[in-house]
Amino acid sequence: MKNFASTLLMSGSVFAGASASICLNALSLILTERMQIMRDVAAYKAKYRLPVEDLAREQKVLAAARNTAQEAGLEPHSVESFISALMTAGKTIQYRYLADGFAPADLSVTQQDLEGIRQRINELDKHLLMTISQRLRTGQLSYSERAWLAEKTVSPNLTEAEKDNLLDTMRFIQRAT
What's the CA gap between 121 and 88, in Å, rounded? Predict the structure, then answer.
């Protein structure tokens, strides 16, 4: 019986390690997609000459993130700095795309497209928080895991410093007690 219990405990740590690894891969993919979508948002804003800043929208995103955090078993206020950093990185990417300019074909984004893009961003944010919650069940991110995430999360117009800031704010997210 003692051998069975130790085997079960060792298996549990193997499964936890596999789960953490899957979560890290998912986090990288979700963050990358979230940042890459900013090109489409910038194209829409360029076409309709809209400002990058939309404070009312940002407040809605933060409120939705707090609700999702609660559903995911996270402390709602602990996600705010991460979501704010995510939006800041997104706006910075949009500004860079706007500064580079768009070809006419890039500006074919419609209002309906923007609603679809925003819906996808909301889905990605929800998946991010759910995945972070799942990952935190095995403990905080290690330095090597954070470095791996930084290496694998790649998006045009996202600098290393912005990526570092984004990943640094992730460490403030806490599971609800």
Answer: 14
